[in-house]
Amino acid sequence: MLLLTALVEDSLDQGYARAAARRDAGEPPSRSSRWVLAAGLLAVGLLLATAAVEARARSSSVAEARAALTAEIEDRESANAELERTLERQRAAVAREREESLQLTSEGARLSDALTTLEAAVGAAAVRGPGMAVRLTDAETDPTGADIDPRAGEAGEGRVTDRDMQTVVNEIWASGAEAVAINEQRLTALSAIRAAGEAILVDFRPLNPPYVVAAVGPPSMRTAFVEGFGGSYLQVLRDYGIQYAVQDSDDLVLPASAGVAVRYAVTPADVPSGASVPQPQKERTP
Amino acid sequence: MIAAIGLALGIIAGLFLEPTVPTWLQPYLPIAVVAALDAVFGGLRALLDGIFDDKVFVVSFVANVLVAALIVYLGDQLGVGSQLSTGVVVVLGIRIFSNTAAIRRHVFSA
């Protein structure tokens, strides 16, 4: 307390009082003092202006770096989208060519039919058919309050999580779905639903809410889903403020998955006899 | 008059010449600015009190800036740089506030 009081009361440099006392005593002021003052004020101005320029330069360099990064992200995203379109075109061309050459023989036609079925089943081809769409929406306002520390964990209660999405999708598969897509992203046997921060990722691509899980399957699918564990799970989610709706649809179109690729498995005919190809660690049956 | 020209010249030189501050000096710039402001407001208050003295002002300005920078430098070497800077800012901030309060009483007589 004493320290603070001293600080507040002695805020003026005592040198001023002493200099004034000296002047009162009759000491003449030195001649050079005007120039000293000018030099001192020049230094003050220089310091303040330099600091201002420095601060502005620093903030603008941060903004520039951020803008450059944003532009790069957007560039790469559009390049990716362009590549994806090219890929789809090429795939369609390959499929057409294959179809044409397969149709030349009866054996080929049989293979072609089998291929079409398989492609639809694994997600390599777009499918259409009757089914249902489950729509999930985050809670509108957080029931626990807006100004809670986001790291505390309670703030995200009204938000759909990756775990919720996994459960819902698994129940939809279990109810008899033949093809499932989340927000126009087709799920395959190798698809992963994960979280990064607060976003849900499907095959490493972030989803934007609201989430629509579309599934093509038999008419019994909806009843099986709503009356099974999936329905009761959605009821629980509703307690947290998450809104859902299940809608029947006569004609759903699900796109092909962009990332159907096997990294380890090879077809037997392609395996060279020397077997320099890395052996799969674990065999999987689809 | 000469003093005002000196101040204006300093600001103009700083703004237009844009002197590059060496990197080793950059951490001390903000603290030096606070110290300089303390000296400036102290001088302004002395001026209004009628006891302003050129030499005291210049010496207090230079000493303030050097000591503030020295304290921060010492703190950096000892590993308590940010705490010591906070301390310097708090002390100088209190002084600036009470000096500006005195100036305000002079100017607005309130």
Describe the structure.
The complex is a heterodimer of chains A (286) and B (110). Chain A has 286 residues and is α+β, with helices and mostly antiparallel strands. In chain A, α3 runs antiparallel to α4 (106-122) and α5 packs antiparallel against α7. Residues 145-153 and 273-280 of chain A have low confidence and may be disordered. Chain A starts with a helix and ends in a 32-residue tail after the last strand. In chain A, β5 and β6 (205-206) form a beta hairpin. Chain A is built from seven helices and eight strands. Helix content of chain A is 48%, strand content 16%. In chain A, strands 3-2-7-1-8 form a five-stranded antiparallel sheet. A three-stranded antiparallel sheet of chain A has the order 4-5-6, with helices on one face. Chain B has 110 residues and is mainly α. In chain B, 82% of the residues lie in helices and 0% in strands. Chain B contains four helices and no strands. Chain B has helices spanning 2-17, 29-49, 54-78, 81-108. The mean pLDDT of chain B is 86. Chains A and B meet through α1, α2 and α3 of A and α1, α2, α3 and α4 of B.
Give the amount of beta strand of chain B, in percent. under 5%
Cα-based radius of gyration of chain B, to the nearest Å: 16 Å
Helix content of chain A: 40-55%
Q: What characteristic shape of chain A results from the CA principal axes? A: elongated
Q: Greatest contact pair? A: A-B, 37 and 49 residues
Secondary-structure element string of chain A? HHHHEHEEEEEEHHE
* Coarse structural class of chain B: mainly alpha
Shape of chain B: globular
Q: Helix- and strand-based class of chain A?
A: alpha+beta
Q: Let me know the largest β-sheet of chain A.
A: 5 strands, antiparallel
Our measurement of the CA-to-CA distance between the termini of chain B, rounded to an integer number of angstroms, reads: 29 Å
Which value, in Å, is the CA radius of gyration of chain A?
35 Å
Strand content of chain A: 15-25%
